[in-house]
């Protein structure tokens, strides 16, 4: 948490006093919920009332948090009564059912995509559009795990050069699809190591993921565009406040446990010098720019809160810039961003 706080104070910004005392996490047994819980545990927040929720299957199990054990409850809206803040790390259907109900009691930071594009719901990346939180109606959406690193890196460049078009190819890790997907990946990997064909019946993926690459994430619409690709397009436009921004996106699942990567070409209104772009990225909040001779990789960014950028170079014209971005999808792609939103919200 010291890390997160220093993020927010980087560049001489004012320190925000945060009191996080009564918190609920829905989906606390999932990958994002667990990551959030461990970030809170390592923080110096004094949390007096921490309520953990999951499915009926997990109800009654106990999760260690600092010096106590907390019993997991089945999600109900009433379970959040009396809390100051709720984090929702559940699938869309469950978010649709519970988030508006829980928002009657306290602000909800929702990790699902259910409310992200609703005009009255702020979709927030604190390095980019913290002002969107003003006047919120107790539902705040946390963007997609690929959109977050994309806009963190592109926003400072946009301010200088004027973003016109984005060409994006993603290399998304299996943990982005949840715990069952990660387990399937580990299981398949063991079979592949033994030179045997893994059983993919019951897999959350449409085909084998170990020793493979799947060029579709989510469902495909009548135009051949995947739901994940649409998220990167529509969410980037909303967060950057650029409703006409052209984004050409191809989202791909790769056999990496944790850490999403993005190959990006940005086309600007003004000429862009790679050296100037590097200078901007070097000072950008939430960005770690690698030295020219170094590479950002998913393995390196795992367990970290920043967006890593490397291979910044001129594109096909002097208006184009190519870059390579990596981030931990469970941290800045999900839990870290949610926690940073909470810090902004409670420091309001
Ligand atoms: N993974 C990522 O990198 C990532 C990034 C950005 C956004 N997200 C989004 O964040 C949300 C959570 O993702 P995740 O990766 O953490 O998923 P996950 O690992 O599959 O965890 C899902 C959570 O939902 C709970 N759950 C499932 N069915 C339930 C039910 N019927 N009632 C109540 N709780 C239920 C599970 O509880 P049990 O353990 O009891 O089943 C678990 O706590 C999703 O909306 C996802 O799209 C994920």
TrEMBL record:
EC annotation from Swiss-Prot or TrEMBL: 1.2.1.11
The keyword Cytoplasm is assigned to this record: no
Pathway: Amino-acid biosynthesis; L-methionine biosynthesis via de novo pathway; L-homoserine from L-aspartate: step 2/3; Amino-acid biosynthesis; L-lysine biosynthesis via DAP pathway; (S)-tetrahydrodipicolinate from L-aspartate: step 2/4; Amino-acid biosynthesis; L-threonine biosynthesis; L-threonine from L-aspartate: step 2/5
Classification via CDD domains: VcASADH2_like_N
GO molecular function: aspartate-semialdehyde dehydrogenase activity; NAD binding; NADP binding; protein dimerization activity
Keyword Oxidoreductase on entry: yes
Subunit annotation: Homodimer.
UniProt-recorded name of the protein: Aspartate-semialdehyde dehydrogenase
Organism: candidate division WOR-3 bacterium
High-level lineage: Bacteria, Bacteria division WOR-3
